[in-house]
Write a structure and sequence with these properties.
Elements (H helix, E strand, L loop, with lengths): L1 H8 L26 H10 L17 E4 L11 H8 L7 H8 L3 H13 L3 E4 L7 H12 L13
Antiparallel strand pairs: 1-2
Helix pairs in contact: 1-2, 2-5, 3-5, 4-5
Length: about 160
C-alpha cells in the first residue's frame, strides 16, 4: 500500500484527497488500521524521487514552527523528532541541517513531511534590531561639535 501512496506524490499534475468515508474493500483488508495523516507520512518517508516536489520544499532560510502545542500523536522517526524539537524556537532550516550534520535538502524533505501532516508550518525569519542599536544610532546623530574656545592667531 505504501508504494501506491508514494506514487501519488510522484505525479506531475493533479490533486488528491483522502476520504475517510470511502467504502473499504474488505477482501483486501489486512486487519491493520491507520489514520490518513500516518499514511501520508509513511508514503513520503519511502519516496525516493523528490523531483516533482522540489518546488514545494520549504525555503532553507525559513524556520519551522509547530502548529500543535502538545506532543505529536503521529509516530515520528528519529530525524522527524529531532526537527520537531527545533520548532520551539526560530531556527532556519540551514541552521538545523548544520546542527544535525545533515544535508539541507534532506532537512527540507523531512520538514515537508511534517508540513504535509499538519505538525509544522514554514515561517520567514525576521531579524529584529535591538533597542540598544536604535539608542546608539540616535546618540550618534545627536552629537554636535562646538568650535574650540581657544583661538589661534596668525601673524
Amino acid at each position: 500500500m505504501l508504494n501506491q501512496v508514494c506514487k501519488l506524490f510522484e505525479l506531475q499534475d493533479g490533486s488528491f484527497q483522502f476520504d475517510p468515508r470511502t467504502p473499504i474493500p474488505t477482501s483486501t483488508m489486512t486487519g491493520l488500521t491507520t489514520i490518513p495523516k500516518e499514511v501520508r507520512l509513511k508514503g513520503l518517508r519511502v519516496l525516493r524521487n523528490w523531483k516533482m516536489l522540489e518546488d514545494k520544499l520549504p525555503d532553507p532560510t525559513c524556520a519551522l514552527i509547530n502548529t500543535i502545542h502538545s506532543k505529536p500523536q503521529l509516530s515520528l522517526n528519529q530525524i522527524e523528532q529531532q526537527i520537531w524539537e527545533f520548532t520551539k524556537s526560530t531556527v532556519s532550516i540551514i541552521a538545523i541541517a548544520e546542527q544535525l550534520g545533515a544535508p539541507v535538502e534532506k532537512i527540507q524533505q523531512v520538514a515537508f513531511r511534517l508540513i504535509v501532516v499538519g505538525l509544522v508550518e514554514e515561517v520567514s525569519i525576521i531579524l529584529e534590531v535591538p533597542d540598544e542599536l536604535y539608542e546608539l544610532e540616535s546618540t550618534m546623530i545627536d552629537i554636535k561639535f562646538e568650535p574650540s574656545k581657544q583661538e589661534n592667531t596668525v601673524s
